[in-house]
Amino acid sequence: MVQGLPLNGKTAVIYGGAGNIGGAIAEAFVQAGAEVHLVGRTEATLKAKAGELGARYAVVDALDEGAVDRHAATFERLDISVNVTTDNDVQGTPMVEMSVEDYLSPVVSAVRSKFLTARAAARHMIRQKSGVILFFGGTGEASAHRRWQLGGLLAAFDAVESMRRQLAAELGPHGVRVVTLQTGGIPESIPAEHRAPIEADIVGETVLGRAATKADVGRTAVFVASDWGSAITGTQVNITCGSVLD
Description:
Layout: E1 11-15, H1 20-31, E2 35-40, H2 43-53, E3 56-59, H3 65-72, E4 80-83, H4 100-128, E5 131-137, H5 153-171, E6 176-183, H6 192-204, H7 214-225, E7 235-239
Parallel strand pairs: 1-2, 1-4, 2-3, 4-5, 5-6, 6-7
Helix pairs in contact: 1-7, 3-4, 4-5
Protein name: SDR family oxidoreductase
Keywords: Oxidoreductase
Family: Belongs to the short-chain dehydrogenases/reductases (SDR) family.
């Protein structure tokens, strides 16, 4: 441990920690002094990312109530919980042509996984009288064409934001903060073969003329999760480069 780092002595668990966004947050947390635990369903990718970062890992399905609770029970304390798991979204199909199962899939999986992981973390944090729960996604007044053929993804984001507000209200008196990192899209997280047109679309909506990077996400997550962000809860932190204006 290096003295003076913003997350020095903090224990963080990142669900979806081997993915693009989870990995970026994990890297930033490690650099900021946290003890980082990566969680996901695929051991090979978890093991590789954990080895790269000097983190720990566990194979856990964030949709499995028993598995989430058992894993959380292995911690003596838990200071930061981040859930950036993907939400089984089906995109590229008009809503009028979608099955109800495909539309609801991201809503159900997002609400279930975020609820289970937040609940498990909150039980530690209430006892500690401190902690931070982070989500990634958020909602805002995106332009009409940016909402095109996204299926149930935006409904899932809206549902999680409702959960975030309720959690913040219930957990605030215990010293626990709940925050969403609001994204307008991170081109680096998109497969290279599909990136160019989507990146152009994302950048075209911003006022800064650029898209947020994975490094931006990591640095913002460190700020919010650390004592530097101790007054922030119950809200979204906007990292859209101005594609969403408050």
